[in-house]
Amino acid sequence: MPEITRRRTGEILRTLFDMLLTSEDGMRARDAVSATEQRMTLSEYEKGEYPSGGQRFDKILRFATVDLVKAGWLLKENGRWSITPEGRLAFEMLTDPADFYREAVRLYHQWKAGQPGPVSDEDEEAPQETPGKIATVTFEEAQDQARADIETYLATINPYEFQKIVAALLRAMGYYVSWTSPKGKDGGIDIVAANDLLATHGPRIKVQVKRQSGTQVNAEGLRAFMALLNDGDVGMFVSLGGFSRDAENEARKQEKRRVTLVDMNLLMKLWTENYDKLDDEAHRLLPLQRIYFLAPQS
Question: Do residues 73 and 83 make contact, with C-beta atoms less than 8 angstroms apart?
């Protein structure tokens, strides 16, 4: 008998889904794993460690989510896990844990059949640590750890250093930064930039920067910023903690006040895309190192 049966795997996955269904924007991967563990009574085997390191429960859950992703039930994006409409339907229809996981495995094999390479026809009783799944989980864990380290670093540096990082990014993207806020009250504007040195072409870009990682900017905070934009200005709001759903809707419906919301995901995307154009000071402010992994099959 395997230590982890299909039914037990289904129980773990349904506990994960039950929790994610209450989270409108999904959860960070590591938070989702931890919260699932806290909601369950683990066996001694699940509490144990692999000889190579790492708790078994963490790996069991992560391996099983590969099936859910390929089944189209779970979305993993920018280090966050969320349930798809198809996953919600499956959760409601397949209430037996064993049936829930069995169908996910079937859909995984259906996906696998369309990929190059050998196809397994095993009727899996427990999540299998195949080379493909191992590569996927290893890649995801590396991404999660890297993202967490960068976010922790940005959340703990001096706020004015974070402001310098945003200004450096704008310069690397080809904009001219004409003003950055000195220490003290800034009136809601931290950076002013333009398309050219004299600001004669295109709109001025007014930027507000919020470094707090655990606090989302809501619609009220966004409106306060937009009130500082004049006709022809473009707003850029950078928030390490992201934006609430109502703030995103507020930005989306604007017709006269143009504003771009930059969260942690977009900031890192822009930073890495323009990394070779950043100056030495910018590299010192946020030093990154490229590391190459064998990419899992998508």
Answer: yes
Are β-strands 234-239 and 205-210 bridged in parallel, bridged antiparallel, or unpaired?
parallel
Domain coordinates of the chain in residue numbers?
Answer: 6-137, 157-285
Alpha-carbon gap, residue 253 to 224, rounded angstroms: 16
Which of 50, 48, 51, 21 shows the shortest CA–CA distance to 36? 21
Would you tell me the crossing angle of helices 131-156 and 56-71 to the nearest 10 degrees?
Answer: 110
- Nearest in space to 90 (alpha carbons), one of 37, 27, 18, 12: 18
CA–CA separation, 125 and 5 (whole Å):
6
Enumerate residues 6+ apart whose C-beta is below 8 A from 73.
83, 84, 86, 87, 90, 91, 104
- Distance separating alpha carbons of residues 111 and 122, to the nearest angstrom: 14
Rounded CA separation 154/265 (Å):
13
Q: List the structure tokens of 263.
A: 């969260």
Q: Which CATH class is domain 6-137?
A: mainly alpha
Beta strands in the chain (DSSP E): 27-28, 74-77, 80-83, 176-180, 191-194, 205-210, 234-239, 258-262
Residue 5 has what DSSP assignment? Answer: -
What's the CATH class of domain 157-285?
A: alpha beta
- pTM summary value: 0.74
Positive or negative torsion for Cα 127, 132, 134, 135: negative
287: which 2 tokens? 């030093």
Phi, psi of 157, rounded to the nearest 5 degrees: -75, 165
For 201-258, the pLDDT digits (tens) are 778 899 999 988 778 899 999 999 999 998 889 999 999 989 988 999 999 888 777 8
Do 183 and 212 form a contact (C-beta atoms < 8 A)?
Answer: no
